[in-house]
Write a structure and sequence with these properties.
about 130 residues; alpha+beta; Nonspecific Lipid-transfer Protein, Chain A
Length: about 130
C-alpha cells in the first residue's frame, strides 16, 4: 500500500512548472521545481502501482517501491530502475519510453521484474 497521499492537481502543477524545459523550450528550472515534479510523479507511480517488488530510484530526489509481488526490505533490491531526474520526468510524462531510455543508456533496469514499470508509464500526460 502506498505510504503517501497523492494529489493529482499538485502533480499536474509540478509537471507544468517544468514542461517547457522537458520539451527543450526553456532553460533548466530551479532545483526545487525539478525535485517537486520528480517526487510527485514518482509517488504517483507508487500510488498507481502499489507493491514492493520494484524500486524506482531518481537520485538525488526520491526512491519508491511499486509493483505487486514479493516485498523487499534489506540490502539491494532484486528489481531496480534507476535514472536521472530529466529522464524520469520524460518517462513520467510520456515524452520518451522506457525502452528508448534504456536503449540510450539513460536508465538502468536490473532484475526480472524491473521492466514492468513501463506498463505504468506515463503517470501524467505531457502538455
Amino acid at each position: 500500500m502506498p505510504r503517501r497521499t497523492v494529489d493529482p492537481a499538485h502533480t499536474r502543477a509540478a509537471v507544468l512548472a517544468v514542461a517547457d524545459w522537458l520539451r527543450g523550450d526553456a532553460d533548466e528550472p530551479p532545483r526545487a521545481a525539478v525535485a517537486d515534479a520528480v517526487r510527485s510523479t514518482a509517488r504517483t507511480l507508487e500510488h498507481d502501482a502499489p507493491g514492493s517488488s520494484v524500486e524506482v530510484r531518481v537520485p538525488p530526489f526520491v526512491a519508491v517501491q511499486c509493483i505487486e509481488g514479493p516485498r523487499h526490505t534489506r540490502g539491494t533490491p532484486p528489481n531496480v530502475v534507476e535514472t536521472d531526474p530529466r529522464t524520469w520526468l520524460e518517462l513520467a510524462t510520456g515524452i520518451t519510453t522506457f525502452d528508448a531510455a534504456e536503449a540510450a543508456g539513460r536508465l538502468t533496469a536490473s532484475g526480472s521484474r524491473a521492466a514492468e514499470v513501463a506498463h505504468w508509464l506515463p503517470v501524467v500526460a505531457s502538455s
